Amino acid sequence: MNIDRRSFLAGVAALGAPSLARAQATGPIRIGEINSYTAQPAFLKPYRQGWELALEQINAAGGVLGRKLETVFRDDAGKPEDAVRHAADLATAEKVDIIAGGFLSNVGLALADYANQNKRLYVASEPLADALVWAKGNRYTFRLRPSTYMQAAMLVEEAAKLPAKKWAIVAPNYEYGQSAVKWFKELLLKARPDVTFVAEQFPALGRIDAGATVQALEAAKPDAIFNVTFAVDLANFVRAGNTRGLFEGRQVVSMLTGEPEYLDTLGAETPEGWIITGYPHPDLQTPEHVKFRDAYKAKYNDYPRLGSVVGYETVQAIAAALAKAGSTDNEKLVDAFEGLKLGSAFGPIEFRKIDHQSTLGAYVGKSALKNGKGVMVDWSYRDGAKYLPSDDEVRKLRPAV
Amino acid sequence: MLDLVLTQTLNGLASASSLFLVACGLSIIFGVTRIVNFAHGSLYMLGGYLAFTVVTWFGPADPLGFWGGVALAVLLTGLVGVLIEVLILRRIYQAPELFQLLATFGVVLMLQDIALATWGPEDKLGPRAPGFRSFVILFDNRFPSYELFLIAVGPVVLGLIWLLFHRTRWGVLIRAATQDREMVSALGVNQRLLFTSVFAFGAALAGLGGALQLPREAINLHMDLSMIAEAFVVVVVGGLGSVTGAYLAAVLIGVLHAFGILILPKITLVLVFLVMAAVLIVRPHGLLGKAGVEPRGHAGQLFLLSPADRAAKLFGAVALGLLALAPLVVPDHLVLTLTDLVIFAVFAASLHLLMGPGGITSFGHAAYFGLGAYGAALAVKWLGASMEPALVAAPLMAGIAGAIFGWFCVRLSGVYLAMLTLAFAQIAWATAFQWVDLTGGDNGILGVWPSAWAVPKTVFYYLALAIAALVILALRVIIFAPFGYALRAGRDSPLRAEAIGLDVGRLQWAAFVIAAIAAGIAGGLFAFSKGSVFPTYMAIPRSVDALLMVLLGGVQTVAGPVVGAFAYMGLNEQLMKLTAYWRFVLGLLIVLLVVLFPRGLVGTWLFWRARRDGAASATAAA
Amino acid sequence: MPAVLEARDLARSFGGVKAVDGVSFTVDAGQLVALIGPNGAGKTTCFNMLNGQLKPDRGEVMLLGRPITGLEPRRIWRLGVGRTFQITATFASMTVRENVQMALISHAGESWRLFGCAADRRGAAADALLAQVGMTSQAERACGVLAYGDLKRVELAIALANAPKLLLMDEPTAGMAPQERIALMALTARIAKERGIAVLFTEHDMDVVFAHADRVLVLDRGRLIAAGTSAEVRANPEVRAVYLGSGATSGGH
Lengths: 401, 622, 253
Known about the structure:
The complex is a heterotrimer. By secondary structure, chain A is an alpha/beta fold. Chain A has two domains: about 1-145 and about 285-350, 3-Layer(aba) Sandwich (Rossmann fold), CATH 3.40.50; about 150-285 and about 360-395, Response regulator (Rossmann fold). Chain A has 14 helices and 14 strands. In chain A, the strands form three sheets. A seven-stranded mixed β-sheet of chain A has the order 7-6-8-9-10-13-14, sandwiched between helices. By secondary structure, chain B is mainly α. Chain B folds into three domains: about 1-10 and about 40-155 and about 190-220, no CATH class; about 220-295, no CATH class; about 315-620, ABC transporter involved in vitamin B12 uptake, BtuC (Orthogonal Bundle). Chain B is globular, with a radius of gyration of 25 Å. The N and C termini of chain B lie far apart (about 60 Å). Residues about 295-300 and about 615-620 of chain B have low confidence and may be disordered. By secondary structure, chain C is an alpha/beta fold. Chain C has helices at about 45-50, 75-80, 95-105, 125-135, 150-160, 180-195, 205-210, 230-235, 235-245, and strands at about 5-15, 15-25, 30-35, 60-65, 65, 80-85, 165-170, 200, 215-220, 225-230. Chains A and B meet through helix 1, helix 3, helix 4, helix 5 and helix 8 of A and helix 1, strand 2, helix 10, helix 13 and helix 23 of B.
């Protein structure tokens, strides 16, 4: 609990100190970070650690524009209305220069709407909703992580190569699950008009009735399964599916399962041979990643999760944009973010001018068991830039700017 | 097809077991102590976590290690139950039962953070049970042998409890206390010991439910709330205090759930609440419940409700004056906070009309707040309405819902009524969540911003303050008008009220509609203040917020809910900024408040003042 | 002119047990009629059929020649029937005066008004009723803190609020000290005579019954076994048998 204590104290200090330095242009540049810390701790604890690592590194190197970076963290408890309240509070009371964060799609969309209404830059780190940059996209919102569409597209590429014709689907019953299913079906049917979808299950998020769900999927006798559940639903689904033999002789294509946040929980029960997106942190030996991983391990004595990367890179992107803009003026920052290019632990990325989506990619590979633990094998990096629709289509998808 | 039906039935029965264990503990505790233990889901979660730790420690591969670990976890959970009873509940048995509910809710919040701090945020996938790792072939399907074991656990525990209740003195005492608590205290039984042991027993059953999930599901931090809602449903559908009823209800819900998944996969969100609404409409006391096994009602806690004296009026006027002057002095962000607080004051006051004068506890008041917000947002999104007409649409939509839901609800009473309001709120929530084309699903409706003149934060604050003051004043006028008196008459003594020609059911129905309209106004304002609406506006936590605000302020007074709204929401917001463990601190504060001020803030103040003045008439013995 | 209250052949069973089996009687204006009988004789069942709480299986209840059988309690009240209960039922969160005001407001058909302070309505009429039952000095006290005897008086005042033609009083003196019992029934008798109200009451205390009842009806096992003046009933051998047999004579429970 050391880290929590430390970050707690840092938070208290951040609350007390700013009023002194706030107005001075030489004081720290302040980022207001809003996330569902208490509602989604499994992803967001490593996220925050990654974030703080990046801050430490940047500030140790002298900060940006000659000023230190500083963060005020807020917990939205998973409620979009609380997130909006915090955003307003951060902007007016804490006088932060930039607003960032968000995990749940609806929180992200609410913050994006707030940003648009108040002409404030919002850097969305994690929310996957496609609408964030497309249907509801706006001038002031940028997103780092590959969207639901992009991750579905990466998996469809693999799914289309499988012989399977009859597909069954299981996804959590909320926006992310529904849009993942929608894109997967649409894109797969385009690539393989011969496939059919024989069963769909939408368990309530976090409350899957695994035995009954597995049985319902089994009853449809599919050739392959597309899974969108994650976290506790995934663990329960996998255990019930293993015992009941649902996965035997069937291909499974699965979103996010390779992220250590979720894969680690499965442990010895990790099903082998699933096609998954994720983060193969032990085997990823590119210099950029090794540097990040070593620093993370040195600071926290733990290996990074995908959340750590997202938190870390969000700060890096903000720092890069600040340096490019040469100012904390939000309009200038928005202009700087458009087409912003930077390196990341996963390789070079760019925040696209056309839809404000970064081209950060994801790793697609297969699940396997090694020493009683789940790992990703046969993986390769899929650059996000290659899994986005054509510019014409994007323009249609992103009506209002 | 038949094999699928049979397998799915077995799946339902297996899910029913843990549900039954938790629900039956809840039901037994309720029967004896009359405490609605909101923390029962937390004890279930604790049982799971403790089992995970102890079993891992003992060595899960060894049968003795596993089952011994499960047994120890059950005992430990029972001990936690003893702690809760001795440290908290024992001090508040004399308080109104809603305050007891409030205290157990405080325990929920504390246990959430304790579990997070102890076990960390990762889900814990436990080991499989030795001897039950594999499967058997049933109806051409593989069926896990552990699920068969679970199916057997339900009836076995039911049988053991029956033996315990009929063959031991302790069990006979429990049954007697469930039927008539006064009688047991008259028999000279050590009531403290009985209550503590019953609470420990119920807690241990919940712990067993959690521990038995270990081989089946990953233990996680959300287990508590997802379980408690369903366990409440099971208890109420089965009939309060009836253990057999709880088993029947658990089986009914488990099996319906399994088939719901086959037929309408998305229905799992609301199925249990639909079942509960249907059962309660047909059988107002649940499947096996009897009339009379219910909380004590308001007897013994009725305060004389007197109109504000000069000091109170002055205080109110000064408070309103300060609120009106606030934007001139406080910084911008506080104006936003004040806007929220003013809106929540209306929300709390609207619930108070039901809970105070109406004597109706609503666990689902957020439905009307949320429907008001959606009324406004839908008017903006689909009709292109501007803020002014949309603010009229808000109470309209909430009021219509209040009329429909209320019509069913006023036919019931007590906890059953409260649970039916919860069921309707969940149905409304699920509709907003699921009807994506109309409502945008969980992404909500964005861009619900005020008309240009009201966009400046200070202007919108004044708008909200003016409307809030009007609505709260109107509610106050209604409470002291003949209608409010008639409503209160129906609460104090339905028998007498009917005997002087009052139609208590219709009065309560009207109160429902008025409260819904007021909550809808709050919801409409909230939508424009946030610029967006989400299904979370009518989710359970929002309803709990409303309850907490009213109870903290005090049910008996008209000013209470307004004070409670400011105290609770203000506290909540400050804590969330201050610490990552805000839930623990909030829970602790709630528990302390209940133990120290069992009459609520304003109620306590009035009580102290009355004692100082020596005016015995200000309060009946509480 | 028809009797104020007429019961015709009332009957009601519970699961095969005939609680009341063919009871007929009348009560006239200004008359105090006692309904007595040993425990389980069917008094309460009979009473509840008169006031609308129970529907009879058979028979009819007439108020001033108009059938009121099976009507809801609040409708029966509207037709001019006041009630008091065995265990007093008043509004504990209101003052004594407000309790009476509430009944007056309901009688005036004003109970649905959303505006105007209820405490300012019908105060004079309430005070007049309270004066009649001797509760003026306690008008401002909360009903929840009153002594039991005082509560009974408040109930009487409430029951008189709709200017009733008939008063139904279920065990009006139960739980009171003997002195108070006589006083309360004397008060009731006086008011009944003054206003020409018909009063039907059940009672355990034979002293009260014989002191105040103009007529006495005796129930046993669901049937009316005797009816007449106090003296006639006292002399009736069947009544004596029932009471001696059951062991209950006077002094209540």
